[in-house]
UniProtKB/TrEMBL annotation:
EC number: 3.5.4.3
Organism: Ornithinicoccus hortensis
Listed Gene3D superfamilies: Metal-dependent hydrolases, Urease, subunit C, domain 1
Keywords per UniProt: Hydrolase, Metal-binding, Zinc
InterPro entries with a match to the protein in the record: Amidohydro-rel, Guanine_deaminase, Metal-dep_hydrolase_composite, Metal_Hydrolase, Metallo-dep_hydrolases, MQNX/HUTI_composite_N
The organism's taxonomic lineage, starting at the top: Bacteria, Bacillati, Actinomycetota, Actinomycetes, Micrococcales
Pathway membership: Purine metabolism; guanine degradation; xanthine from guanine: step 1/1
Name of this chain's protein: Guanine deaminase
Required cofactor(s): Zn(2+)
Catalysed reactions, semicolon-separated: guanine + H2O + H(+) = xanthine + NH4(+)
Amino acid sequence: MSTLYRARVMDTPDSPFTGAGLRAEEDVALVVEDGTIVTRGPYDAVRDAHPDAEVVDLREGILLPGFVDAHVHFPQVRVIAGLGMPLLDWLTHCALPEEARLADAGYARGVATDFVSGLLNAGTTSALVFGSHFAPAVDEVFTEAARTGLRITAGLVLSDRILEPAGLLTTPERAYQESRALADRWHGTGRARYAVTPRFSLSASDPLLEVSGALLKDVPGSWFTSHVNENGAEVATVAQLFPDAHDYVDTYDRHGLVGRRSVLAHNVHPTDRELAVLADQSATVAHCATSNAALGSGLFPLKRHIEHGVRVALGSDVGAGTGFAMLKEGLQAYFAQQLLGKEGLPLTPAHLLWLSTRAGAEALDLGDEVGDLSPGRAFDAVWVCPPEGSTLDIGLRHAQDADNALARIFAMAGQADLARVWIGGERVRPVDPA
Ligand code: GUN
Ligand code: ZN
């Protein structure tokens, strides 16, 4: 059975950072079979070639690829918007007390439901997820993602020092065993993949980072994710804790943790040496724009990343980030570059769409599967169709051109404007009754 989606489609198959523009086409037909786009072209011609396909008419709105969130914390969904604190205070007073509650698997199950639901409601269809310090809680988030179809890469969060309460801490031996068992259960099962996840060097000793390197080798195709260079006090503490390391990136790199399948969140305060290492090893930085603003971490030096050739995607960083909406992250990323003045990189609507879709897909090595709406990709898509009278509805009716319409979507779209979401051809919002 094939379905033909008839729509105005916008996506970014190629990077605006290397000169490509927005691909915006009117009256496109996307033919979807078994969850995959098999044909894309002008409606009339495609319809003639597929007379038996069921037609879903989406011309009232605009179809975008599903969003890809390159950095989001599962245990923090219930503590979003603990405002007014810098990173280390926020961890102590807001995030970690809640994360400790996930020791209770029943509590973790409820959090997993809230978390996955939050992502889907925001139109996020793939995510690199910071898991929990507790293995049963990580099972819960993988289970809920599998139930709903969400594509996640996630893992057990590892720390063996400094964090409180002490129940969050592990040992290198236990970290290896529990991570390995989770990876054996989930890595490559359906859409799930495993990410080795030391929390950050501040809370991870060299032996724990060494074990992380061993896990990355022993679980072929697994990911590495952590935090780097987010906040001045954090960076200074890491420098004290690792007197032999060149810098923060080196604390990971010397354990073989920086490579093509590594995503480091933040990097607001990098040195040129660190940017050169990240570029050389093809690692990705997840820019978490609302989090950086909410915690006062700083303005992300995107221009320096791009000039060095570092890959950059976007992360919501819930719950330091202020919600799941990748559209809001895109807008905030634009604001940050504006505020940087001459040091900033002016971003177009196409850049924002790239950063919130295709860049994340490439960071997760899912570029062949998702990230744009080309033939061969899974049908992971968001239909922006504002209800009558919403500010976005007025905005779209008065947009001058496609780029301007997309700018209005990033500036104004809220959850109510995301009328439908699909993953692999299955409608996940609103949930398909079939
Ligand atoms: N660094 C270590 N843990 C965290 C976290 O949970 N959120 C953010 N933003 N930074 C971190
Ligand atoms: Zn984070």
